[in-house]
Amino acid sequence: MTESVSTSEGVPRPLLAAVVVVALEAVVLVVYAVLELFSLTSGRVVMGLSTAGFFAVVGAGLAGCAWAARRRQTWARSPLALSQLMALGLAWSFRGGQTTWIAALLALAAVVGLVGVLHPRSMTWLLEGQSDDR
Predict the structure, then answer these.
(1) Position 10 confidence tier, pLDDT thresholds 50, 70, 90
(2) C-alpha distances in Å from residue 102, one per residue of 2, 55, 96, 99
(3) Cα 119 to Cα 117: distance, rounded to the nearest angstrom
(4) What is the DSSP-derived secondary structure letter of residue 74?
(5) Is 7 left (phi over 0), alpha (psi -120 to 50) or beta?
(6) Which of 25, 51, 81, 97 is the most buried (most CB within 10 A)?
């Protein structure tokens, strides 16, 4: 019975799915930051550096939250859920025209992330870990 609920290390599958999705989002953000640095021109140095810095910091923050949730840190739930809600809003802005596929991909990732983080098994596992630490 526990095999269908958790992985071999005890992390519920819904939370593991959310952590993987958020980690992939973090990688995409950091890669975008690096690409932004490579596209700097003399006319937009400040904008390019600030954009790259922003996406690098957000990507690193998401990666840290995914890692913390995987390590049973309850505080990581809120930033993970908030980032997925923001991804849903971003997906909405990409709907229509040639960017519909981006909207669908973002929305799918956000829904998987939200369901995984807010799933009852994920919440129970995280909260049980909090009581074990005390």
Answers:
(1) confident
(2) 36, 18, 10, 5
(3) 6
(4) G
(5) beta
(6) 25
